[in-house]
Task: inverse folding
């Protein structure tokens, strides 16, 4: 841009504000000096339209179940949003998330978390192999007694994406591919830390992942995310529902950005509390006294090979059922197997005895004292083979094992 102006001294303030100015060498005062402004050339950029409207033009929500944007009643989770499912490691978050996804796929709820209609889910997970996932599926089907019709419907309602290597921007691309192909209502990310690819405590990194990358995808593909996340460590004793959302490992963004949150808390003896840690009042839960609450009690199935969850109506009864008793000495000894053909299999290690106690529903911490008592009375015998001195069995079984061992040495 060329501007003609009378000559001025270089220490005078420019009439053009703070724009950088390049002065052409001084000409005689009787002439007009030419001044070239070295303004940077900026390519025009497209401006995103502003999404503003009058407060009086906003549409009120529908609470009759006919709102297409509502995914979980009563607007606990809507399209374009996200929620967290948080709990300590090994507590059962994955099995609970699979059960919720399968029930939501059939239009059914669990523990007061209700879908607005049958919802399609894709679970992107990084920790389980195919057999792990099949085991959870079969446990849920058996434990909740799904029908053949239910299983046929679920074939097109719940999908598992196995991915262990993609994080950061590579995960973003994977997510786009999944959303394009399946067009789900819910996308479950389990565990979300497995795909972050950055410091989970960094507000900048987590905020970028949630607000700049995940949120636009939820809006674009008209769905919602469920982030399965870990705690730093398991809380001990009582917890404050008002701050439980901040038990998530890492940045406060894990609690701040998601619209809703569920927290799985271990109580004792197989009893768990499911806490609606954010927007919990929207679930409209009621306690036994009819008063509003943000807590529901659930428990693991106590049936062997049925990996699923059950709702608990009476906490006191559940605690009684969950109490593991100490067996009598007679019960303990009678549980030892007899196998004279292969006696080594009938001699139980400490781990074998723990598994036996778990299978019987006994207090597994009681077995060391019972073992010592049974050995002292001669009802069980310790195996004296090297390091197996804590391996015990019935006297006749250990004798058979010792004979076979001696015969193998002689041969």
Result:
């Amino acid at each position: 841009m060329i501007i003609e102006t009378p000559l001025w001294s270089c220490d005078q303030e420019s009439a053009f504000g703070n724009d950088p100015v390049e002065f052409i060498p001084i000409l005689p005062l009787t002439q007009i000096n030419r001044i070239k402004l070295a303004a940077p050339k900026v390519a025009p950029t497209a401006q995103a339209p502003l999404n503003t409207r009058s407060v009086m033009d906003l549409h009120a929500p529908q609470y009759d179940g006919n709102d297409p944007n509502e995914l979980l009643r009563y607007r606990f989770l809507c399209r374009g949003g996200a929620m967290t499912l948080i709990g300590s490691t090994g507590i059962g978050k994955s099995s609970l998330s699979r059960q919720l996804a399968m029930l939501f796929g059939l239009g059914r709820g669990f523990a007061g978390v209700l879908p607005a209609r049958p919802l399609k889910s894709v679970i992107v997970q990084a920790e389980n192999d195919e057999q792990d996932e099949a085991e959870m599926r079969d446990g849920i089907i058996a434990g909740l007694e799904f029908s053949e019709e239910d299983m046929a419907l679920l074939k097109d309602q719940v999908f598992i994406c196995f991915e262990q290597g993609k994080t950061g921007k590579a995960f973003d691309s994977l997510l786009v591919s999944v959303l394009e192909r399946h067009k789900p209502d819910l996308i479950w990310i389990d565990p979300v830390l497995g795909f972050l690819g950055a410091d989970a405590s960094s507000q900048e990194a987590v905020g970028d992942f949630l607000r700049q990358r995940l949120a636009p995808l939820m809006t674009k593909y008209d769905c919602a995310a469920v982030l399965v996340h870990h705690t730093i460590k398991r809380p001990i004793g009582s917890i404050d529902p008002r701050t439980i959302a901040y038990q998530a490992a890492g940045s406060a963004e894990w609690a701040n950005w998601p619209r809703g949150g569920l927290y799985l808390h271990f109580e004792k003896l197989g009893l768990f509390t499911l806490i609606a840690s954010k927007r919990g009042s929207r679930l409209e839960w009621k306690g036994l006294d009819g008063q509003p609450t943000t807590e529901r009690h659930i428990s693991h199935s106590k049936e062997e090979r049925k990996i699923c969850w059950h709702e608990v109506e009476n906490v006191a009864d559940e605690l009684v059922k969950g109490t593991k008793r100490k067996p009598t000495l007679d019960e303990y000894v009678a549980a030892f197997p007899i196998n004279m053909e292969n006696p080594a299999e009938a001699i139980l290690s400490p781990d074998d005895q723990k598994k036996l106690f778990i299978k019987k529903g006994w207090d597994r911490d009681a077995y060391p004292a019972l073992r010592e008592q049974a050995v002292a009375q001669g009802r069980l015998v310790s195996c004296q083979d090297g390091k197996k001195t804590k391996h015990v069995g019935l006297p006749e079984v250990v004798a058979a094992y010792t004979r076979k061992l001696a015969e193998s040495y002689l041969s």
Observations:
- Residues 1-27, 29-39 have pLDDT under 50 and may be disordered.
